[in-house]
Write a structure and sequence with these properties.
Blueprint (H helix, E strand, L loop, with lengths): L15 H7 L2 H4 L3 H17 L5 H19 L12 H13 L1 H5 L6 H37 L4 E6 L2 E7 H26 L1 E2 L15 H7 L4 E2 L3 H6 L2 H27 L7 E2 L18 H24 L14 H21 L4 E2 L1 H9 L5 H10 L4 H18 L8 H7 L7 H5 L1 H7 L8 H18 L1
Parallel strand pairs: 3-4
Antiparallel strand pairs: 1-2, 5-6
The chain binds arginine.
The site of arginine has 10 residues, from helix 7.
Length: about 450
């Protein structure tokens, strides 16, 4: 019983199962280095403020360094009886340095301590995910540049709608990923504030210097309200929400790659190092990586829901419920990090089959809108042009033709304003290069968009 740092008022030992049930060490050991960094800054501040002696501070810093080495060497004796990472480290420190270790917790509570550790961890993870996002975006941009002239069908309702360039299609995902990065950066601004100094909930009676600790730990500032500081987890919700959107975007690309790599589409071949085979069907080369990314989106959405539900209805300030905040966010961060890595690694190795893409774009009357626009330029109101082209398409369906297969006389049967120049707008190249404005699919616009995206990425530093 004496092992517990809080057992003074207790007359009965903790139930054995309850001990395991309430412990968080199995998952919050991830916060070990953040916990030590926080304790270092806290101890030094206590020394500067004359709350602890210089000798105690020195002993604490040396002891924490030894504990850190033990953790990094994988030799730290984690104990479930000591509940969480905070008490594990403090107990180990005290074991090593004696009384000075018992003074470290002066002016601090595990409530502001865990909030600090968690924010430090999430901040570093956001930075790591931003780096992965940057690699993924660079892969998309490079591939888009390579495929700026590649024509493919653009889809609505998964039916060929209008020709687009593959470069344009890929840059759509770079736009999503750029907004994802913006959301993470925005969340980071609210993550990166120091809650330490809030004590258990009301602050502390010691003359602490929170600003100094904030600066030491690289926080942008301190939180304002102690009650809020120990019970606020909306930074975790925001981060998980940004993670969910990353996964939503990745899963859309993943879904397209699964389809494109199927023999039915035949648009792309994924690198074999990112595929696996079947134990029974020898012909199979399965797109497991994008399928798993698509599948993992569900668990991140679940993590977000867990966090939102966890917060709902908790009275101020800290409640033990809060301990449930870590596993969902850890899972979301791990999943996003891994998914971004694997997609960034895979994208440059995808072989796009330009002939198949082109053939698919030629089928399904994809230049029908171009013909309507042509008629408008010849003076027809758009609605009438739409009707004329609809009839021409009907004729093609009935006779097994595509629009450019019709001879001029047939086309003129639908509208007298049609001339020989109509064939230019019916070609795939004519169609895509005509959409020549910011946001359009023309190859020159894709190249310009690639340059702008690269410049913005450089600016993000
Ligand atoms: N393991 C706890 C958590 O993750 C640390 C804070 C415990 N505070 C308390 N008053 N029981 O939230």
């Amino acid at each position: 019983m004496s092992e517990k740092p809080w057992s003074g008022a207790f007359t009965q030992p903790t139930d054995e199962f309850v001990e395991a049930f309430t412990a968080s060490i199995d998952f919050d050991k991830r916060l070990a280095l953040q916990d030590i960094a926080g304790s270092r800054a806290h101890a030094r501040m206590l020394g500067r403020q004359g709350i602890l002696s210089e000798a105690d501070v020195e002993a604490i810093l040396d002891g924490l360094e030894a504990v850190r080495e033990e953790i990094e060497a994988g030799e730290f004796p984690y104990s479930v009886a000591l509940e969480d990472i905070h008490m594990n480290i403090e107990a180990r420190l005290t074991e090593r340095i004696g009384d000075a270790g018992k003074r470290l917790h002066t002016g601090r509570s595990r409530n502001d301590q865990v909030a600090t550790d968690f924010r430090l961890y999430v901040r570093d993870e956001i930075d790591a995910i931003l780096a992965k996002l940057a690699r993924f975006r660079a892969a998309l941009v490079d591939t888009a540049e390579r495929e700026a002239d590649t024509v493919m069908p653009g889809f609505t309702h998964l039916q060929a709608a209008q020709p687009v360039t593959l470069g344009h299609h890929l840059l759509a995902y770079q736009e999503m990923a750029e907004r994802d990065a913006g959301r993470l950066r925005d969340a980071r601004r609210r993550v990166n504030l120091l809650p330490l100094g809030s004590g258990a909930l009301a602050g502390t009676t010691f003359p602490i210097d929170r600003e100094w600790v904030a600066q030491e730990l690289g926080f942008d500032g301190v939180t304002e309200n102690s009650l809020d500081s120990v019970s606020d987890r909306d930074f975790a919700v925001e981060t998980a929400s940004a993670c969910s959107l990353v996964m939503a975007h990745l899963s859309r690309l993943a879904e397209e790659l699964v389809m494109w790599a199927s023999p039915q589409f035949g648009f792309a071949t994924l690198p074999q190092s990112f595929c696996t085979g079947s134990s029974i069907m020898p012909q199979k080369i399965n797109p497991d990586v994008p399928e798993l990314v698509r599948g993992k989106t569900g668990r991140v959405n679940g993590d977000l829901m867990s966090l939102l539900t966890l917060l709902k209805g908790q009275p101020l300030a800290y409640n033990k419920d809060m301990q449930e905040d870590k596993e969902p966010l850890f899972d979301a961060l791990d999943t996003v990090r891994g998914s971004l890595k694997v997609m960034a690694d895979m994208v440059p190795g995808i072989a796009f089959h330009r002939d198949a893409l082109r053939k698919a774009a030629s089928a399904g009357f994809a230049t029908a809108t171009d013909l309507a626009d042509y008629l408008v330029r010849k003076g027809l109101p758009f609605r009438e042009a739409h009707e004329v082209v609809g009839k021409a398409v009907r004729h093609c369906i009935d006779h097994g033709l595509e629009l450019p297969d019709m001879d001029l006389a047939t086309l003129q049967g639908f509208s007298g304003v049609i001339g020989e120049d109509v064939y230019e707008v019916l070609t795939l190249e004519g169609s895509v290069s005509a959409r020549d404005h910011i946001g359009g699919t023309a190859p020159d616009q894709v190249r310009a968009a690639v340059e702008r995206a690269r410049r913005r990425m450089e600016g993000e530093g």
